[in-house]
Amino acid sequence: MLKTPLNAIPPTLAALSDYESLARERLTTQSWAYISGGSADELSMKRNREKLDDLCLLPRTLCDVAKGETKTTLLGQQFEHPIISGPVAYQAL
């Protein structure tokens, strides 16, 4: 049974990678296997991971995060969570 979508940031989340377990609980087994894997020898996926690991974010210290949220607006459309996947298998998932 899949869990319902999140409507708030759980206090246990500290990094983007923490969303992985939450996503796994909210996707079907087939969808998770498709999205979390790569094609062929997964070279592109490995290179993407390496490049993303090289990025550094500068944290803003001493900011009030009591009402933290992940909302963002992209091309005039508001998204609750700014984690967006590109087209996957002609959107057949």
UniProtKB/TrEMBL annotation:
UniProt enzyme class: oxidoreductase
Q: Which cofactor does it need?
A: FMN
Question: Which PROSITE patterns is this protein grouped with?
Answer: FMN_HYDROXY_ACID_DH_2
Domain FMN hydroxy acid dehydrogenase: residue ranges: 8-93
Q: What is its EC number?
A: 1.13.12.4
Keywords, A to Z? Flavoprotein, FMN, Oxidoreductase
Q: Which GO terms describe its molecular function?
A: lactate 2-monooxygenase activity
What name goes with this protein? FMN-dependent dehydrogenase domain protein
Organism, as annotated: marine sediment metagenome
